[in-house]
């Protein structure tokens, strides 16, 4: 019988020692809270597919953003749910469009206490639910969509968004939006590119959250879940076009892509723990099948360990509270 000379358990002996040698730590400032705001409601509405998450009124949105700031959360990411949609998503570019109105309200409420960010994509605003406009054949028209993204970017920047989250997966969107922003003097408006965004079933609950009108799928513009090299290529292309931050989305099923992008990137790399990831943990916890808070923390630590500098998560404020 020989006994081990190398004893890896030594560093795990006490909670204090484990804390001292921990390789990965969460911090509230690197969490971003996604928020939904619905036009024409005076009270927030609950979402059946995302227990605990609301479609906000402007008032409850302001309060919730202020609470996140109070908890030390790094940013909020706003999504609009308009009352009326059309083929070109025109409400996205109008000053009185719900997302732009809400952005102004939140920016006025929180000032510099938290970074105000907006989703820059047409899917919430189009009556067909696609992330871009359609050509005569019904296909998503990349270049015609870029023209609208430029207008949308300017509307969001004027409303007070500091970080634009480009989530439409059109080719050339980062360069097009950067050019539009710089042309109007918005040199300091940050572009966060959803670079490696996969065509994922885990966005399911989000479709209810934004009342999505989509009937088909997004496979002609979002990435094929099996493609790892292509995810990295998307991120590198966005960095070359001028992205200030790149993102991988969803998070948990794409940690290899996240690690690849983190290794190659010279800009911050974020990850989005999406609606389906949220709802899976909440549903399992509601059944008593997993320890909710431990599962949430472990999921976030795993995403950070894989290489995320910041994480969009629907639990941002709650987790920030635990970390205080
Ligand atoms: C597109 C967008 C989506 C999400 C964020 N931005 C939906 C999609 O691409 O289908 C999903 C977020 C989530 O599931 O939490 N505007």
Helix content: 25-40%
Bound molecules: ligand PBG
**CATH fold assignment:** TIM Barrel
Q: Return the domain count.
A: 1
Structural class: alpha/beta
> If you compute it from the alpha carbons, what radius of gyration comes out, rounded to the nearest whole angstrom?
20 Å
Write out the strand line-up for the largest beta sheet, numbering strands in chain order.
1-4-5-6-7-8-9-10
Mean pLDDT: 97
Rough outline: globular
Poorly predicted sequence stretches spanning 5 or more consecutive residues: none
Number of helices: 11
Largest sheet: 8 strands, parallel, barrel
Number of strands: 10
Determine the N-to-C terminus distance: 48 Å
Description:
The structure is a single chain. The chain has 11 helices and 10 strands. With 324 residues, the chain is an alpha/beta fold. The protein has one domain (26-323): Aldolase class I (TIM Barrel). An 8-stranded parallel barrel has the order 1-4-5-6-7-8-9-10, surrounded by 8 helices. Helix 3 (98-110) runs parallel beside helix 4, helix 4 (142-159) crosses helix 5 (173-183) and helix 7 runs parallel beside helix 8 (255-264). The longest helix is centred in the middle third of the chain and has 18 residues, at 142-159. It is globular and about 75 Å long. The site of ligand PBG has 10 residues, from loops.
């Amino acid at each position: 019988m020989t006994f081990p000379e190398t004893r890896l358990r030594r560093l795990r002996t006490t909670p204090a020692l484990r804390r001292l040698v921990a390789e990965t730590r969460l911090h509230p400032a690197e969490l971003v809270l996604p928020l939904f705001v619905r036009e024409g409601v005076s009270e927030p509405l609950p979402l059946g597919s995302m227990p605990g998450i609301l479609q906000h009124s402007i008032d409850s949105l302001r309060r919730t953003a202020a609470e996140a700031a109070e908890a030390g959360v790094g940013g909020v990411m706003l999504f609009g749910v308009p009352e009326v949609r059309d083929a070109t998503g025109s409400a996205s570019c109008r000053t009185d469009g719900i997302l732009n109105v809400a952005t102004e309200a939140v920016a006025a409420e929180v000032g510099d206490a938290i970074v105000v960010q907006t989703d820059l994509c047409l899917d919430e605003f189009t009556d067909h639910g696609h992330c871009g406009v359609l050509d005569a054949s019904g296909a998503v028209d990349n270049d015609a969509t870029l023209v609208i993204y430029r207008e949308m970017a300017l509307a969001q920047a004027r409303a007070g968004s500091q970080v634009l989250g480009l989530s439409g997966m059109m080719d050339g969107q980062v360069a097009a939006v950067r050019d539009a922003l710089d042309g109007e003097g918005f040199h300091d408006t940050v572009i966060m590119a959803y670079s490696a965004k996969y065509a994922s079933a885990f966005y399911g609950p989000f479709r209810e959250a934004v009342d999505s009108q989509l009937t088909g799928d997004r496979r002609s513009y979002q990435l094929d879940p099996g493609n790892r090299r292509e995810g990295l290529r998307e991120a590198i292309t966005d960095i070359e076009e001028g992205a200030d931050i790149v993102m991988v989305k969803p998070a948990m099923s794409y940690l290899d892509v996240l690690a690849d992008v983190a290794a190659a990137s010279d800009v911050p790399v974020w990850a989005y723990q999406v609606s389906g990831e949220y709802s899976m943990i909440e549903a399992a916890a509601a059944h008593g099948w997993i320890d909710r808070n431990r599962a949430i923390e472990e999921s976030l630590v795993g995403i950070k360990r894989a290489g995320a500098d910041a994480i969009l998560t629907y639990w941002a404020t709650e987790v920030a509270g635990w970390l205080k």
